[in-house]
Design brief:
The protein is α/β, with parallel strands linked by helices. The chain has helices at residues 33-45, 99-108, 156-164, 168-171, 193-209, 224-235, 250-256, 267-274, 290-301, 323-360, and strands at 2-3, 25-29, 51-54, 90-94, 114-118, 130-134, 144-147, 177-182, 189-190, 213-218, 240-242, 259-263, 280-283, 286-287, 305-308. It has 2 domains: 2-151 and 338-360, 3-Layer(aba) Sandwich (Rossmann fold), CATH 3.40.50; 156-308, Rossmann fold (3-Layer(aba) Sandwich). 36% of the residues lie in helices and 17% in strands. Helix 3 (156-164) packs across helix 7 and helix 5 (193-209) packs parallel to helix 6 (224-235).
Amino acid sequence: MIQKDYDREPGLPAAGRPSAFPRSAWVLSDGKAGDEAQCIGVAEALKLPYDLRRVEPRKPFAWFLPKGPIDPKERETVEGSPIAPPFPDLVIASGRRAAAYLKRVKQASRGRTFTVFLKDPRTGPEAADLIWVPEHDSLRGPNVLVSATSPHRFSAQKLKSLRTSPIPEIDALPAPRIAVLAGGNSRHHRFTGDDISRFAAGLEKWGETQSSGFMITASRRTPEPLVSALKTLANGGRHLFWDGHGTNPLPAYLAKADAIVATADSTNMIGEAAATGKPVHLFMPSGGHRKIDRFLATLADKGVIHPFPGPFTATTYEPIDATPWIAQEILRAYQAKQQEDATEARRGPERAQDRQDKANS
């Protein structure tokens, strides 16, 4: 296991790319937006161009993944296959149904392609050359990277650039500006009528007592009653609500926020908020899970999260972003594999000569 050290942020080498830097990459997924965003965030941290490849296995093949075989109609030899060659130097994959395809790429490329899987592939550490999992997951191994938060696309540079760029509709909001990240129903959480009422009432109170300007986003999982309540709040003036049309303003909302309110149903969303260094006020809908509890406890210990509804907190902390570290570890492992392969190739003729000498003796 390779554990993220938050006292050290190595980043990528500043003075050019090493000779063993990958020159081509795929992002491989089964279409889930959150999984793709994590993979793209890592590729961007590597400053590496990539092709986005999506697998779409049919039933019954999809039922048996990740352990079962890939859909024969998506094998690398079939025209239009998402894993058709030429194979890249690096594949970054995520998503349960993509795991078997990643393994197939490794086989079909005769081991040349370096494979990375983000999150637990559910088939063990042998699923890829390198695996990343969040700290609250249980998978461990010598090729497993572990960090408290997930990789994402909101780099420190990107947030800094947006923070200093003029965005009139955001800049006109009263301070403190608060980004409101509303998730929705998930495997472990449900927004009941009481939850929606508590959440909306908490925002209304802050709007009155703090004279806050809210920058509100909802997700595709956000239940309609909650969307309606948030729209009503925004229509009262002094607030923004993104309706899902046009360019997603979330990066700008995070960059410009003095504080953040987020719902506890998405560890990815909370991890993105933690990259800002701004206080994250957390709303707990009904439900929960012990893995999420462990994740939240880690962030609470680091001073990231605070309860919502509750007192407004302006306390900041050192931003938490594992993405550069994950990219660095991928590069380090890739270079080690390149060196190992080169050494093996040099030893090939020597071994052939040894076999010949033995045959002649």
